[in-house]
């Protein structure tokens, strides 16, 4: 799969070292196809790591994909250089008149705040509202999933007594296209202090398609199939949880070692195959449903919403 990236995009060298094909922008312009246009709203502090993790997964599609990264402008980004953001990220003002085939909204380390206390909440709400008419499909990750469920459906967060941290077994509750090729049981990384109000979920037009062994909903989808909510982190690299654990310990946070993560003292990656498969299935799904002419996405979304009423 050729991901279309700027020649000097930092993640490009990492992906090429892993034998992942990232096509140069100059070559892509000579290919007579309509690539999928994907937008990633990166809310994570370490943006370059998240870029690599997500690009690694979407690289499994045989489709050509144009990827744009979106930044929040109402927030000071302390962990990524302004030069990187200015060169490789767009403001919402630059995309709001455009349509995209897919949007990914990442998690963010703000889940212990009320949604309205997050300094960029109004801007995020504007982006989520725009996505309902201008994007064919949206994947929300972790806090991004909680934010989407709260804004679109009024589902509240529920605080845990301690951090849910590790790799947890999931069970498919409803077969869906996103699970093509999945085992009936699979593993997914989790790193969060909050969950969602399960009773409220049952009262809304939301399908729970996967749960963990404790009965918590972990993958959900809106009734019109436009919005997908991942409570966990398929995109995590093999050592991401260990880095987070060590960082918490250095900060004096009493985080327990991630569960089901180490085997004989070594990190055991048990989610890699399903992670690649999930994003491959999602992009294939988007390709099947999105119109050839991007501007027709708005009409498609109107029809989709009407069918779900």
Automatic annotation (TrEMBL):
Major location (coarse): cytoplasm
Subcellular location: Cytoplasm
Keyword rRNA processing: no
Keyword Cytoplasm: yes
Range of residues in the leader sequence: none
Top-rank EC class of the record's enzyme: transferase
Active site per database record: 142 (acyl-thioester intermediate), 233 (proton acceptor), 235
Name listed for the protein in its UniProt record: Homoserine O-acetyltransferase
Species of origin: Enterococcus xiangfangensis
Gene this protein is translated from: metA
